[in-house]
Amino acid sequence: MSEPQTLRALQHAMAAQFDALPVAQRPDDPILEAGQALAALLGTSLAALRAPLRDGALAPASLVARAHAVVADVQRGMPMAYAVGVAPFRHLELAVDPRVLIPRPETEIVVEHALRVCADRAGGVAVDIGTGSGAIALSLAQEGRFDAVIATDISVDALTVAQANAARSADVLRCPVTFRHGSDLAPLVGERVRLIVSNPPYIAHAEADALPSAVRDWEPVTALFAAHDGMARYAAIVSAAPAVLEDGGWLVFECDARRAHQVAALFDAAEGWRDVLVFPDLTGRDRVCVGRYAAESAARSSGASAR
User: Fold this and answer.
1) Lowest mean per-residue pLDDT among 70-79, 263-272, 294-303
2) In CATH, what class is 98-306?
3) Does pTM surpass 0.85?
4) How far apart are CA 242 and CA 245, in angstroms?
5) pLDDT category, 1, cuts 50, 70, 90?
6) What count of other Cβ atoms lies within 10 Å of the Cβ of residue 230?
7) Within the chain, where are the H helices?
8) Among 265, 129, 122, which Cα is nearest to 194's?
9) What DSSP line would sit under 55-79, residue for residue?
């Protein structure tokens, strides 16, 4: 029978395994990575875990077994978030697996801008196109002042994950969230909404080989790649959004930093879009593009074109 193991010993054993990973997979701080993994497995925060680590608390046998499984998964290339099954996003803790993209810090900035453009008043409907894990939709429902949020995805599997995350976050959501299956704005026929947010697939198929293997080999292809050099979904959504947005409604995109100004050009080339701006993420790279739809302006442009 093996000797009981303390949480700190388990953390250091995991860290040693992470430190031995190939350079491309090795975390910058293996001890921190191991601590975050243990916190995720225990359903707590790293801050809350510090006292048990310091005080020599024993690791339950079940936790030791799960920690060994996480290490094995990471050693075969699985991203840590998939290995532990959860990822943080703003004020939420979301379940994730290879059916959905892993939520990333840059997407938190997208939510920030979406909330900002709608900060002047409460009400209306917000939409998240390509919801994946539900990160954007659930954050809008938690932090915004909307009457309702609609989340769509082309993947039934992704919607299953998102609905489970909505259930686990139900106590902190301020409005109902509904989920619809379909591509782009097809699930929104007959709706009139105040805000559309999307982090669409934006990687060109030709760029697949340049992606890290943890992304290319594990995350869902339909959420990563788009035709027309990664621009296809942006073009489709900008074209269809006026049929759904209320007058003065906003469209907010996450963008590939290399193509953010191409996204802005799509707005500029279409009728009725105003206040089109590109914003950086926390690393200074262009990441968010926003535009406001002015129905009267679009009508005037159409009338002038007809004369």
Assistant:
1) 294-303
2) alpha beta
3) yes
4) 5
5) very low
6) 24
7) 7-19, 30-42, 46-54, 61-75, 80-84, 105-117, 135-143, 156-168, 213-216, 221-224, 227-230, 232-240, 260-269, 295-306
8) 122
9) TTPBPPHHHHHHHHHHHHHHHTT--
Check: CB of residue 131 under 8 Å from CB of residue 151: yes
What residue ranges do the domains of the chain occupy? Answer: 7-84, 98-306
- Residue 124, class by beta-carbon neighbours within 10 Å (0-12 exposed, 13-18 middle, 19+ buried)? middle
The per-residue pLDDT for range 43-52, each reduced to its tens digit, is: 988 899 999 9
Burial 76-115 (b: 16+ CB within 10 A, else e): eebbbbbbbebbbbbebebbbeebbbbbbebbbbbbebbb
Examine the pLDDT at 159 and tell me if it is beyond 50.
yes
Over residues 67-85, the pLDDT tens digits come to 999 999 999 999 999 999 9
Separation of alpha carbons 222 and 118, rounded Å: 29
**Could you identify the residue written with the tokens 């020599």?**
56
Q: Is the pLDDT of residue 281 over 70?
A: yes
Structure tokens at 1: 């029978």
Q: Which of 166, 142, 19 is nearest to 94 (CA)?
A: 166
Residue 219 tokens, joined = 């995350």
Q: Distance (Å, rounded) from C-alpha 103 to C-alpha 90?
A: 10
Amino acid sitting at position 31: I
Place of tokens 């916190």: 39
For residue 224, the one-letter residue type is L
List phi, psi (to 5°) of 246: -75, 165
